[in-house]
């Protein structure tokens, strides 16, 4: 499996086939809004969304982004785990 980045998407490919993605919009130099997470039906229940989430966290930290979790899956993960509070955009001054 391989992650790819293109046009505000973080894709996860398996054998050159997209099996899932996270879609985000860049709000400004410091903030991205994560709109949706999708996993192909054939790959659901295998932890693919979690792998995409982990890649998103690395991407946000590497690029010094704060995340607005519009996507309910991402919001649930970020809201309830202390270890992700560093990327959670709660400061309206950043918007």
CATH fold node name: Aminopeptidase
Class based on secondary structure composition and strand pairing = alpha+beta
Say which CATH homologous superfamily is assigned. Gcn5-related N-acetyltransferase (GNAT)
> Widest sheet: strand order?
1-2-3-4-5
Description:
It is a single chain. This protein is 25% helix and 36% strand. It has 95 residues and is α+β, with helices and mostly antiparallel strands. The protein has a single domain (2-90), classed as 3-Layer(aba) Sandwich (Aminopeptidase), CATH 3.40.630.30. A 5-stranded mixed sheet has the order 1-2-3-4-5. Strand 2 (9-14) and strand 3 form a beta hairpin. It is globular and about 40 Å long.
Write the layout of secondary structure elements.
Layout: E1 2-6, E2 9-14, E3 17-26, E4 31-39, H1 48-62, E5 66-69, H2 72-80
Parallel strand pairs: 4-5
Antiparallel strand pairs: 1-2, 2-3, 3-4
In short:
The chain has 95 residues and is an alpha+beta fold.
Short descriptors:
2 helices, 95 residues, alpha+beta, single chain, Aminopeptidase, five-stranded mixed beta sheet, 25% helix
